[in-house]
């Protein structure tokens, strides 16, 4: 069963179209990465899922229930961490965590203390004195200490140090193991690449890609570095080859994944001395979407 | 579903606001009970009270504190209610506006509400908890005031009257609680909510001032006018209480309806896109500070003019009142050729001077708010010295104080000259008004000093201003020890044109202010910047 289902959701703020027919789903036991440039509509989508803003059209459900009408019921099993956490200055971190947990009716002290330990938080300090990273920890602890089936995380690691980022990744893997689902919106693409089973890319309010990392890779290019006996400059004329460079006898270029076998045939005739191929990183994927956008704009 | 976990949120709200609520409760109950006991000790005979009644009956007093009633038998109760009820009700309104804004739009603006709403909490739970909390607070303070007055067992202040006195204050608080809850659905920012709500309060006061002098209907349109119709301790009418509660209920329902319909973070008043580039005006510390407070400054300037004008507009009636009241003229005697009107003017002058100090202090204290939010750092790390930062805020505050005072006096003169047969000359009025500038400067100095020296206690300056107001206002009515009145800088200014002008107190005030400011500037440069 799908934990989240978003069906042609659009949102307008006045005349501004923030979301346009957004569609994706998050399945049971999967971590779904949700990426896109600033202002693309990630947070708007998440706020619709949380039932705190209303979609102009389309329909979104969590656990099969309507996100706006059944918000309270849904929230019993959903944990949310925003990227910018503001807390009540005159309460201590510990008080805030307990308040959040008991509002969900799930104050599990062992789990809470374990997480406070893991994230190395001093819960006795007033929330007003916490740094950004520490405020973020409070939201993370409150989320992972709850008995939720779905975690909605909107840039949850902003402000965390690399050690704490590791702890966060462990927490995500842990809940995934328990069959829970995670919607992770992030700009740290290496993190998304490492944690996520499937990925969706949103740009200007529209979903432009959705699938596993492998699926997405098929749509893009493979990086190849090769040393050959004969000159490989003819490769520049082979369809599907891009950005051919020669540096100290090593050619490096990118190949459209669907043309890979034809290019390899050409290469083998040139006498390969060494070859190295890398699948595109998520960053490459992401940049490519940026670039095609730029080129379209220029053209 | 809409109200899930409202009880828990209510407790959470209590936990958040227990300190502030306690301070409001103690000060409001304390001041009322103390004033009541001061009133009763003051006039021993009915005759004394009766002569007081006649001075209170004039239109200037009516505009300021509301219509007198029961004047033919001016008991302690009637006197106290007439002179204290309106101002205390305004304090209830201010309390309700500030608390509701802090709990609704401010929480929402800062993203705290988003965190709460991601929990299994109903869409209307937070607003409900706020309205319930502030309502209970208003009821508790009102009842405590009522019980306190009964417990004092003072002549002329019966049981029903005392309870009604407290409840009149309560319903004023409720009216402003509900209107602020409603406005917080409309404006996207907490500053907007506070601004609009105070605008409602000010319009309510002016409407009542003009209405009480000239038109009953106008007064009834104002919540402040409406609640005064209880005629506490004389007639004890209950209908204004019920009407006010009914209106509050309607506003609350509309607020709930709007809150349920709208997106989190959105307001119903649409914000429009702003400029793409900073204008040349903006690109200096002075320009930036002015721009950030543009709305505040302009609104206060307008308010001060209308406040002066609405007091001025009753001067015609005031003149006629004194002419027709020979008994009163005889009783007060001819004070060296100054008309009664001029004598009342001196009192209005102090009130206007204290009012004009509010925007000055407000504009200066913005620097504290900016510091708390970590925004002074943006300026301090960009080659603007601390000296320059604080000097900019201070200069803007002083200028705004001068402009406010000038416009209040101008409004007073403008309106009064339209309605008086023998108008007061503008120059005389201006002299009287602007003599208060050193007193205003001293209050500003206290604000600067607190900011520089004990930044967390800057709100104390408001306490000093409120104290000044009550000593000056009550000082004329009750027998207050001189040293208590002398703590206020405003009581040292010669009251022109009735008093002679005297440089000594003015120079002393200026001297103290200068020393205080120098000390403040030094200690601000030494202290840590606080985030």
UniProtKB/TrEMBL annotation, chain A:
Lineage top rank: taxon: Bacteria
SMART domains, per database record: AAA
Pfam families according to UniProt: ABC_tran, DrrA1-3_C
CDD domains: ABC_DR_subfamily_A (cd03230)
GO MF term (any one): ATP binding
SUPFAM superfamilies on file: P-loop containing nucleoside triphosphate hydrolases
Alphabetically ordered keywords of this record: ATP-binding, Nucleotide-binding, Transport
PROSITE patterns tied to this protein: ABC_TRANSPORTER_1, ABC_TRANSPORTER_2
The ABC transporter domain, residue ranges: 4-229
Entry-linked Gene3D superfamilies: P-loop containing nucleotide triphosphate hydrolases
PANTHER family assigned: ABC TRANSPORTER ATP-BINDING PROTEIN, ABC TRANSPORTER ATP-BINDING PROTEIN NATA
Family: Belongs to the ABC transporter superfamily.
Protein name, as recorded: ABC-2 type transport system ATP-binding protein
Source species: Gracilibacillus kekensis
Organism lineage: Bacteria, Bacillati, Bacillota, Bacilli, Bacillales
Automatic annotation (TrEMBL), chain B:
Parts of the chain that traverse the membrane: 21-43, 80-100, 121-151, 163-183, 192-211, 237-258, 297-316, 344-367, 387-414, 434-453, 460-483, 503-524
Record keywords: Membrane, Transmembrane, Transmembrane helix
Name under which the protein is recorded: ABC-2 type transport system permease protein
Annotated source species: Gracilibacillus kekensis
């Amino acid at each position: 069963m799908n934990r989240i289902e978003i069906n042609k959701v659009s949102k307008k703020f006045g005349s501004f179209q923030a979301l346009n027919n957004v569609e994706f789903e998050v399945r049971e036991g999967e971590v779904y990465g949700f990426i896109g440039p600033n202002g693309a509509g990630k947070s708007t989508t998440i706020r619709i899922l949380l039932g705190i803003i209303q979609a102009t059209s389309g329909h979104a459900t969590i656990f099969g229930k309507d996100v706006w009408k059944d918000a309270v019921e849904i929230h019993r099993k959903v944990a949310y961490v925003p990227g910018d956490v503001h807390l009540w200055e005159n309460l201590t971190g510990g008080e805030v965590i307990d308040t959040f947990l008991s509002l969900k009716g799930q104050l599990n002290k062992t789990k809470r203390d374990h997480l406070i330990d893991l994230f190395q938080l001093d819960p006795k300090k007033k929330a007003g004195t916490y740094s950004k990273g520490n405020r973020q920890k409070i939201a993370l602890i409150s989320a992972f200490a709850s008995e939720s089936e779905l975690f909605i995380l909107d840039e949850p690691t902003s402000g965390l140090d690399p050690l704490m980022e590791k702890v966060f990744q462990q927490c995500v893997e842990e809940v995934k193991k328990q069959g829970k689902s995670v919607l992770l919106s992030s700009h740290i693409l290496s993190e998304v690449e490492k944690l996520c089973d499937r990925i969706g890319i949103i740009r200007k309010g529209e979903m432009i890609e959705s699938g596993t990392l492998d699926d997405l890779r098929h749509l893009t290019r493979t990086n190849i570095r090769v040393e050959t006996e004969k000159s490989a400059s003819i490769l520049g004329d082979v369809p599907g080859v891009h950005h051919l460079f020669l540096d100290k006898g090593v050619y490096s270029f990118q190949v459209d994944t669907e043309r890979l076998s034809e290019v390899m045939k050409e290469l083998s005739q040139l006498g390969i001395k060494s070859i190295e191929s890398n699948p595109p990183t998520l960053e490459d994927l992401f940049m490519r979407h940026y670039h095609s956008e730029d080129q379209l704009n220029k053209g | 579903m809409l109200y899930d976990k409202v009880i828990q949120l209510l407790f959470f709200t209590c936990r958040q606001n227990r300190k502030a609520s306690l301070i409001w409760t103690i000060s409001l109950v304390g001041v009322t009970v103390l004033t009541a006991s001061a009133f009763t000790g003051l006039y021993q005979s009915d005759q004394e009270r009766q002569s007081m009644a006649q001075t209170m009956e004039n239109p200037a007093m009516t505009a300021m504190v509301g219509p007198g009633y029961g004047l033919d038998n001016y008991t302690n109760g009637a006197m106290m209610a007439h002179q204290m009820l309106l101002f205390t009700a305004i304090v209830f309104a201010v309390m309700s506006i500030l608390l509701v804004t802090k709990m609704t739009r401010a929480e929402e603006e800062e993203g705290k509400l988003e965190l709460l709403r991601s929990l299994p909490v109903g869409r209307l739970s937070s607003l409900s908890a706020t309205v319930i909390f502030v309502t209970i607070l208003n009821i508790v303070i009102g009842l405590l005031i009522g019980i306190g007055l009964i417990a004092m067992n003072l002549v002329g202040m019966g049981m029903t009257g005392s309870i009604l006195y407290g409840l009149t204050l309560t319903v004023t608080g409720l009216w402003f609680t509900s209107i602020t809850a409603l406005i917080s659905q409309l404006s996207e920012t907490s500053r907007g909510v506070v601004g609009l709500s105070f605008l409602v309060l000010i319009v309510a006061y002016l409407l009542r001032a003009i209405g009480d002098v000239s038109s009953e209907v106008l007064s009834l349109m104002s919540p402040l006018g409406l609640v005064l119709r209880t005629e506490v301790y004389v007639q004890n009418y209950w209908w204004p209480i019920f009407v006010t509660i009914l209106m509050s209920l309607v506003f609350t329902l509309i607020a709930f309806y709007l809150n349920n319909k709208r997106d989190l973070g959105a307001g119903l008043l649409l914000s429009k896109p702003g400029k793409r580039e900073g204008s040349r005006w903006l690109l200096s510390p002075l320009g930036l500070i002015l721009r950030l407070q543009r709305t505040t400054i302009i609104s206060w300037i307008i308010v001060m003019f209308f406040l002066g004008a609405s007091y001025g507009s009753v001067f015609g009636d005031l003149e006629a009142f004194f002419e027709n009241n020979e008994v009163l003229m005889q009783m007060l005697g001819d004070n060296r050729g100054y008309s009664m009107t001029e004598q009342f003017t001196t009192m209005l002058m102090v009130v206007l001077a204290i009012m004009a100090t509010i925007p000055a202090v407000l504009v200066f204290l913005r620097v504290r708010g900016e510091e708390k939010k970590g925004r002074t750092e943006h300026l301090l790390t960009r080659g603007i010295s601390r000296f320059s930062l604080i000097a900019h805020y201070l200069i803007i505050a002083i200028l705004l104080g001068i402009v406010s005072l000038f416009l209040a006096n101008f409004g007073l003169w403008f309106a009064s000259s339209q309605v008086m047969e023998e108008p007061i000359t503008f120059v005389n009025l201006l002299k009287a008004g602007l003599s208060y500038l050193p007193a205003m400067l001293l209050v500003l100095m206290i604000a600067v000093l607190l900011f520089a020296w004990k930044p967390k206690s800057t709100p104390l300056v408001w306490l000093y201003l409120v104290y000044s107001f009550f000593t000056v206002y009550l000082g004329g009515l009750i027998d207050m020890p001189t040293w208590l009145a002398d703590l206020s800088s405003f009581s040292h200014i010669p009251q022109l044109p009735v008093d002679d002008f005297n440089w000594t107190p003015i120079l002393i005030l200026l001297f103290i202010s200068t020393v205080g400011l120098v000390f403040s500037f030094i200690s601000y440069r030494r202290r840590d910047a606080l985030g």
